[in-house]
Specification:
Methyltransferase; disordered N terminus; Put_SAM_MeTrfase; 7-stranded mixed β-sheet; about 625 residues; single chain; alpha/beta; EC 2.1.1.-; about 15% strand; transmembrane helix; globular
Length: about 625
């Protein structure tokens, strides 16, 4: 007889067949009953204890967007009602959505950290009062900044370069003040930008052609530029057709809304001023710096071998001194001072012709070190992080370039010409100066964003349509992979590297031929309301968890996003559900969709569109 049951600690025993069968049957029934009882008890307790914190209706979490047709979304990944409640438990104490009211119309052009009223409290010496001075936490607005009555969607690029709606930026001051210089004209319900500037009344295009006769603007060696006191950014606007992208900046000053006009035209710009703090860019960022009627110390942000272009007083003073209402002696002394400063910076005078003078920064400091043994003013800066530029005090010293082995070597590494440099390994990475970012990391990140941007365009088909978006913001750019995959579209991307990020990668972004700036999202950005058509945020809310309020970041996004502008937020689903509730309170139309790798990924994406609304019409 076969052994029916075996316990290792005992010997087999002989038992009769019938009692054995009855015993097995009783055991089976008992075990089945106990298992079933425990299972149903556990299910009852679990559903009872979690019932309250799992009440998140799909109408709260997912809304179908008209601009995201379902035919463009994989039916296996996304449906009109995405239900996360069986996978994720979110503690929601109050199901009521907090509604954010409209701000008063006086805040229509509110720039929190460059508020003209707040600036009056600060020192006027060295223009410190025009630097960033952000509101305290108790001063933060908890309302939605309105667009002016009559606001319309901007003209599509490249038409927007030349025309803007008056209702969007209702300021006529510059049309009078700069009429002779052809900055801007008022025509009916529109502004027209003839392309003129203070030193190029005949147009920026011709002015750039004149510069192109002196330095090569066509071979791709010059890609990134910076323009200060930019006016309405005509210089930057006309460089774009030459595959050169300029960061234009100017303070919020008596020339009301000049940066706002630049952004309305679809040209990269920020509010900014050189006073007591470094510009918010890494060292060696720009291939070319432009300064019309100004004197700016460009030594740090200009790339080795980069060009500094100066036009306006005192250049060509012998011809213009009467028109400038200054004496010959005064202007001659000013030009001599510039020449001496450039020499002490080890810059060489490249060329001066007609109204334009150009200096070139050295490729390295090998010869400069020898020269400075006799010329010690300004001194070389002590060892420091030259890329640190967020509220960093300007020092009167010459920023050291990276060490080189020969006079022919470019400090910091040689850059490929555009467009090859976009995908080449950036020198900061190949030289190992960016912590934890290797060539392999760079290449994997490039492939990752190629796939992600393709998925974005599948979910939101308008992202691939020319003209729908122009001004784009990436709130956490890392290596610039998102922007790199949009370079063939008629858009530009402002790449933000948060100052709280683990690794400072903004220098890499510039070495790729892209532009950006530093920013802490616990503060407002140095830009006007309604700047961007599309905002992309990768893991931003995870980064700022327990640093500042999610609500305040979302209100800032609402301020800088245009009416009917779009948002793509990528984050953990539990965070996105909280973001979604705030988006509902801001009256955005939003939808949570699956990760590009499928529904099993806990990271999800929120696509949203800001609703169109404006301040009411003025009553008599």
């Amino acid at each position: 007889m076969a052994t029916p049951y075996y316990i290792p600690t005992s010997k087999p025993t002989q038992i009769s067949s019938l009692p054995l069968k009855i015993t097995n049957l009783y055991s089976f029934v008992a075990i089945t009953f106990l298992c079933s009882a425990f299972y149903f008890t556990g299910v009852w307790q679990n559903s009872s204890s979690n019932r309250n914190n799992r009440i998140i209706t799909t109408s709260n979490v997912h809304t179908t967007l008209s601009c995201f047709p379902s035919k463009n979304i994989s039916s296996s990944r996304t449906t009109k009602k995405l239900d996360f409640t069986t996978h994720h438990s979110v503690n929601v104490r109050d199901n009521a959505v907090k509604i954010y009211p409209a701000c008063d119309i006086k805040y229509s052009e509110y720039t929190p950290c460059e508020d003209p009223e707040r600036s009056l409290k600060f020192n006027r010496n060295r223009l410190i009062y025009r630097e960033r001075h952000c509101p305290e936490k108790y001063e933060l607005l908890k309302c939605r900044v309105p667009a002016p009555y009559g606001y319309k969607n901007p003209f599509k690029w490249p038409v927007s370069r030349d025309i803007a709606w008056y209702a969007n930026v209702p300021h006529k001051e510059l049309t009078v003040e700069k009429a002779v210089q052809n900055w801007i004209r008022y025509e009916g319900d529109k502004f027209r930008f003839p392309g003129g500037g203070t030193m190029f009344p005949n147009g920026a295009n011709k002015y750039i052609d004149d510069i192109g006769k002196l330095i090569n603007l066509k071979d791709g060696s010059i890609r990134t530029a910076i323009d200060t006191g930019c006016g309405v950014a005509s210089w930057g606007a006309y460089l774009l057709s030459r595959n050169i992208i300029a960061m234009s900046f100017a303070p919020r000053d008596s020339h009301e809304a000049q940066v706002q006009f630049a952004l309305e035209r679809g040209v990269p710009a920020l509010i900014g001023v050189i006073a007591s703090k470094r510009l918010p860019y890494p060292s060696r960022a720009f291939d070319m710096a432009h300064c019309s009627r100004c004197l700016i110390p460009w030594g740090e942000v200009l790339r080795p071998g980069g060009f500094w272009i100066l036009s306006g007083p005192p250049i060509r003073w012998r011809r213009y001194w009467k028109g400038w209402a200054r004496t010959r002696e005064d202007l001659n002394a000013e030009q001599n001072k510039i020449e001496q400063v450039a020499k002490r910076l080890c810059w060489k005078k490249f060329v001066e012709k007609d109204d334009i003078a150009i200096w070139q920064k050295p490729y390295n400091h090998m010869k400069c070190t020898e020269f400075r043994k006799s010329a010690k003013n300004p001194p070389m800066c002590p060892a420091q992080d030259p890329d640190k530029a967020w509220y960093t005090k300007i020092e009167t010293c010459l920023t050291r370039l990276p060490e080189v082995a020969s006079e022919e070597e470019v400090a910091g590494g040689h850059l490929e010409k555009w467009p090859k440099r976009l995908h080449a390994i950036p020198p900061r990475i190949s030289r190992g100066t960016v912590n934890e970012v290797t060539e392999e990391v760079f290449q994997k990140d490039s492939q990752l964003w190629k796939r992600r941007v393709s998925y974005y365009k599948l979910v939101n088909n308008q992202l691939g349509q020319p003209g729908r978006y122009r001004n784009i913001l990436d709130m956490n750019a890392f290596l610039g992979g998102f922007a790199a995959n949009l370079v063939d579209d008629p858009v530009w991307v402002m790449n933000i590297v948060p100052v709280e990020a683990k690794v400072n990668t903004l220098g890499v972004v510039y070495e790729r031929g892209l532009i950006g700036t530093y920013q802490s999202w616990c503060e407002a950005m140095s830009t006007y309301p309604r700047t961007y058509d599309l905002i992309h945020a990768d893991s931003v809310f995870t980064l700022y968890e327990n640093r500042c309020e999610m609500e305040d970041i979302m209100l800032e996004l609402d301020r800088i996003l245009r009416p009917e502008g779009s948002v793509i937020i990528r984050d953990d689903v539990d965070i996105l559900i909280r973001v979604k509730r705030i988006a509902d309170g801001l009256n955005w139309d939003s939808q949570i969709v699956d990760h590009e790798d499928g529904p099993l990924e806990k990271e999800k994406l929120l696509f949203a569109v800001k609703s169109y609304w404006t301040a009411p019409a003025k009553t008599s």
